[in-house]
Structure to design on (1173 residues):
C-alpha cells in the first residue's frame, strides 16, 4: 500500500540560500619570559577578522619578534649545516629555507655553523612547539553563530535565533544538546568534545572543526516546526598510526616601522582551530491528511540521501493531481516526474498480476477452479462473438 | 502529444565551476572630534582585502585608539559595578568581559566604581552606536563584480563582462535593471534599495546582502543567448518584531609599536555590509526544431527546480537516439536515464491502450463494430497461414 | 545483457563534507631603487594569511610608500586636468578618484596642473605595471594542499595525504602527473603550465587558477582504491580578442604610526594568482563479483554527470535485493528508486518480447517452426492437466 503513496507522489528538490556570520568572545592572559604578561582578546586571536563561512581561532603560536631584513645563519638541518663557504651555494634556496643563501658559512651558535641567508632575521625556530597550547584557555571561549536560510521556491526564510529567544537569554545561554538545544552560542571546548576529541590535544597542533546546522523543516500549515539542530565533527581526520603533517597552522606578520623608516615585523606561526559552519537541510511539504503517514518515510529517505553542504536540499512530497487537482494551479505540480513514477509503478503492477497468475497456476492447490474463474470471461466473449455472428 | 517529447527526451544535470572576483571603489571624508579630518578609501574600509565570493564594506565603526596592555576599570554593568574589592573575584572573566579581573574595585568615573581588569586599556565602550552611520557616504561607493562560469560537460565558458562591453563603457557605466542590465558595476545604495531596504538603516548596524547572478543559457547553435541577470536580496532576515542580535559586526585592530618596543593598537568594532555573490544558473540544450516547443517547458521545469547556490545546475534536453543517432558519438548521450524514461513511457502507453480498449469495449456504443476492426488482423493472419500451407 | 545490470541496480547520490587547508612555501629577493634589497617570504606575499578554500599569492605589485592624510594633486586624466580652480568642483569625487576635490587647481608636475584632492598622499600612480612581474620568482614557490573528505552515508573518510606517504617523502616531493601523481605539493609554475597558460604572463596581471581534486572511489571491500587525482584549469577566461578588465588585483595597506601619533601607511596594489581548490568526486559501491563488470559503466556514467564543485556526488550501485537480501539490513538499500528502475526495466522487457514476437512472426522465414516452439508449452501444459485428472 505505502508504495502507492510513492507511485502517486513525486519528489522535487529545492535549493536554499544560506548566510552565516560568526562572533567569538573570550579573553585570556599569558605570562611568558619572551612576551611577559599579556592579555589576548578577540582582535588578537581571530585571523582574519572575518570570513564568510568559517572562523579561525589561534590556540597555539610560535612568535618571532623584531625581525628585520638582513643576513643571518639559517636553522641547522642536514642541508644547511656547513663547514666552510664551499658548502653554501650563493643564491640557492630550498623548499624549507627561510631565505636566500649568501654563500657564506657562519656560526649559528657556539658549536654549529650553517649557511648564511638573506632573510627576515632572526629566522624563526619552530622546532619546539609549546605544550600545553599557549592559549589553552581558548577552551572556554564562546562562538555565536548566526544563520539565515531562505527557500526560494517556497519563499520561506528563517534564522537560527528562534522567535522565542530573548536578548536576555542570548546574553547568558550556552548550547547544550539537552538543556539548551536552540542556543546558538557554543563553548569551544564543548564543540570539540562533542566530536569526540580532546580540546587540549587539538589546541596544540590545530585542526578543522565542522559545525553542522541541520534544518529539518516540515512546511505544512505551521512553520514553527522548522528548527535547526546542531552537530559537530572534526573534519581533518587524524589517523594516529599515520600522523603525517597533522593539524593546521599558517604564518602571518605584524609590521612596524621605526621613525627612521626601517621596517621590522613580528612573525607569528599560528596554530589553531578553524570552525567551518556547514548548513544542511531538507524541507518536506505535504497536505496535512497525508503528512503524518509519509513524514516518517520522507525523513527516512532524506536520511538516505544524506546532507548537502553549502546547499540545502528540500524534498517536497505531493499527492498526485487525481487527488489534489488544486495543486495544479498551486504551481507546485510537475507532470514529468509524476509520469515517470506512475509509469514505473504501472509496469510493476502489470508484473505483479503476472506473478500472481504464475504462483496461482503452478503453486496453488485446486488451481483448476481458479483457472475456470480466470478464463470465464473468455467464454462470455465467445458468446458475445457468437451473438454477433447471428446479426 | 507533448508528453512524447518528454518520453523521447531525457534530462541530465550538469554542474558548473564558477569564479568570482570583486573590486570596490569610492572615497569619502569624515570630520570628528576624535579622528579629526580623515579620508577613507578602499584600503581603509574593505576588510579583509580580498575574499573568495564576498566582500565586506565597513559602513559604521566604534574606534578605540591607543590601547595598550595594562590595568583599567571594566565597563559598568550589573556584573562589574562594585562597592569594594570584595565584589571583584581576581582572575574571573565573564563572556562579555574585556579582560581578566584583578580583584580590585576602582573608580570608572566620578561616581561609578567597577572591577579592574587586565586588558587592552582603555576598554572599548560600544554602548553608543553612531547614528547616522559613520561612513554613510558608502551609499555611493561602487562594486565591480567579475564572474566566470564553465560548464565542464559542454566545455562552455563565459564571463559576465560580455563581449560587446568596451573598456570605455566599463569605466563609466553603473548597473540599472532597465537601462544598463549588463553593466557589472553596482552602486551600493542601489543594491540595498533593489532588495527593498534602506541603505542608511542597514549601514548603521550592518547586514548581509546577496548579489545573485542568474545565468539562463540556451546552448543551441548560438551561445550569445547565454546572458547573466542580476538580482539582490538581503540575506539576514530582519523581523522587526523580533530584533534580537541584528546586523553584522566584528572587531579588528591595527597594531603599532613605539621605538621603545611597547606595542599599542587601535581597536575598531566594524559594522558593515557583507556582499555575498551567489551564482545561479541553468542551461538548456535542444536540437533547434524542438527547441521552440520544449523551451517553454524547460524554463518552466527549471523554475520549478529553483536555483542552486555555488553550483549551477544545467539541464540538457535531448531528442532520443532513434531520431538523432548523431548524438551517440557526440558523447553527450547517456543511455541509462533514456532507458528508464522510455521504459516508464512505454508502460504508460501500454496502460493507455488497455484503458482505451476497456473504455471502447464497455463504455462505447456500437462496440462490436470496433471489435471487428480490432480483430481483423487475426483473420488476415489465418489467411496468411493458409497461404503459407499452400507452399 | 548489460541492461540487466542496470535493471537490477539502482543509483543513489551521496553528498560529502570536504575540508581544505593550504600552505605556501618559498622565498625570493628583489632589488629595486624604491625598496632597495628586500626579502619576500610567505608572511609577505600571502594575503590574507588564511582562507577557507583558496589561497592568494601576490606576484606583482605597485607600492606607494609613506602615504599620509593630506592634500595633493590628483593623477592627470581628462576629468582631473585643470587650468584654474574654476575647473575643480570642491567636494566632488568621481568613481576613479583617489580623494575628494578641494576645489583648488595645483601643479601635478612641471607642466601639468590637476585638481587637488584630500587623500592619502601622495596618490598612487598605477599607470605603469611592472613587467616582468615583480615577484616573478613565485613560479618556483610550492603549495601544499591538504584535503579531507567524508561521505556521511557510508561514514567513509579519507585524506589526500595517502597512508603510504611518509614524512620524508612529503618533505622532498613535488607533484608530477607521471612520476608523483599523489604528492600533494605543487610547484606554482607547473600548475599554471598544466592549465596551458604561461606563469610569467599570468603573474603580471594576476588571475584565478582552479586546482581540482577528483576523488574516484570504489568502496568495495578495500578502500585503498579510493584515490585523488589532480587537474588544473584557469578559471578567469581570457579572450585575447576581448581583453577588458583582465586579471585579478586588489589594494591593501600596512599602517604605521610615528611617535607623534601621526599615522602613515604603505599602500600596495597587489596583482596575483588566487588558487581556488575545488573538490570533485564520486564513489561507486558494488559487490565484488559485479564490480569489475559495472565499474567501467559507472565511471562512464559519472563522467557524463560531470563534477560538482563544493559537493562530492557519490554514486552507489547496488545489486537488487532479490539477489543480495543481506543489503536490506545493511541499511544501504533504498526501495523507492529500485522500484522505479525495476518498473521501467520490466516495461522495456515487456516491449522487448513483443517486438521479438512481431519480428519473428512477420519478418523471419520458417516462422511456423518458431511458432510451434513458442506454443509447445501449451501442449505440455495440457498433458500436465491430463495427468492431473488421473489423480
Amino acid at each position: 500500500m505505502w508504495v502507492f503513496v510513492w507511485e502517486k507522489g513525486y519528489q522535487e528538490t529545492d535549493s536554499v540560500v544560506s548566510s552565516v556570520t560568526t562572533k567569538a568572545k573570550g579573553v585570556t592572559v599569558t605570562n611568558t619570559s619572551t612576551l611577559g604578561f599579556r592579555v589576548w582578546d578577540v582582535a588578537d586571536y581571530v585571523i582574519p577578522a572575518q570570513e564568510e563561512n568559517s572562523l579561525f581561532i589561534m590556540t597555539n603560536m610560535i612568535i618571532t619578534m623584531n625581525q628585520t631584513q638582513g643576513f643571518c645563519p639559517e636553522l641547522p638541518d642536514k642541508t644547511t649545516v656547513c663547514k666552510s663557504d664551499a658548502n653554501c651555494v650563493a643564491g640557492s634556496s630550498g623548499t624549507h629555507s627561510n631565505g636566500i643563501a649568501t654563500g657564506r658559512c657562519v656560526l649559528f651558535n657556539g658549536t654549529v655553523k650553517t649557511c648564511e641567508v638573506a632573510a627576515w632575521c632572526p629566522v624563526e625556530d619552530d622546532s619546539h612547539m609549546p605544550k600545553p597550547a599557549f592559549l589553552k584557555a581558548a577552551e572556554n571561549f564562546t562562538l555565536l553563530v548566526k544563520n539565515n536560510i531562505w527557500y526560494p521556491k517556497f519563499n520561506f526564510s528563517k534564522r537560527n535565533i528562534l522567535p522565542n529567544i530573548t536578548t536576555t537569554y542570548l546574553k547568558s545561554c550556552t548550547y547544550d544538546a539537552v538543556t539548551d538545544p536552540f542556543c546558538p552560542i557554543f563553548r569551544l571546548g564543548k564543540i570539540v568534545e562533542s566530536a569526540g576529541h580532546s580540546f587540549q590535544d587539538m589546541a596544540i597542533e590545530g585542526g578543522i572543526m565542522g559545525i553542522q546546522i541541520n534544518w529539518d523543516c516540515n512546511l505544512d500549515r505551521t512553520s514553527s516546526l522548522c528548527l535547526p539542530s546542531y552537530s559537530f565533527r572534526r573534519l581533518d581526520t587524524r589517523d594516529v598510526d599515520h600522523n603525517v603533517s597533522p593539524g593546521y597552522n599558517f604564518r602571518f606578520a605584524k609590521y612596524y616601522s621605526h621613525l627612521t623608516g626601517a621596517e621590522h615585523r613580528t612573525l607569528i606561526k599560528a596554530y589553531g582551530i578553524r570552525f567551518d559552519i556547514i548548513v544542511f537541510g531538507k524541507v518536506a511539504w505535504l497536505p496535512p491528511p497525508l503528512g503524518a503517514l509519509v513524514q516518517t518515510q520522507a525523513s527516512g529517505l532524506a536520511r538516505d540521501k544524506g546532507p548537502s553542504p553549502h546547499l540545502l536540499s528540500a524534498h517536497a512530497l505531493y499527492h498526485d493531481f487525481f487527488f489534489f487537482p488544486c495543486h495544479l494551479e498551486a504551481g507546485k505540480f510537475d507532470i514529468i516526474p509524476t509520469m515517470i513514477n506512475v509509469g514505473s509503478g504501472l509496469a510493476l503492477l502489470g508484473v505483479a498480476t503476472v506473478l500472481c497468475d504464475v504462483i496461482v497456476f503452478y503453486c496453488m492447490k485446486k488451481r483448476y477452479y481458479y483457472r475456470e474463474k480466470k478464463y470465464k470471461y473468455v467464454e462470455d466473449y465467445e458468446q458475445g462473438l457468437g451473438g454477433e455472428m447471428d446479426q
In short: The first strand of chain A starts at residue 11 and ends at 25. Chain A has three domains: 16-63+125-279, 75-122, 334-374. Chain A touches chain B through 68 residues (CB under 8 Å). Residues 16-63+125-279 of chain A form a domain with the atp-gated p2x4 ion channel fold fold (CATH 2.60.490.10).
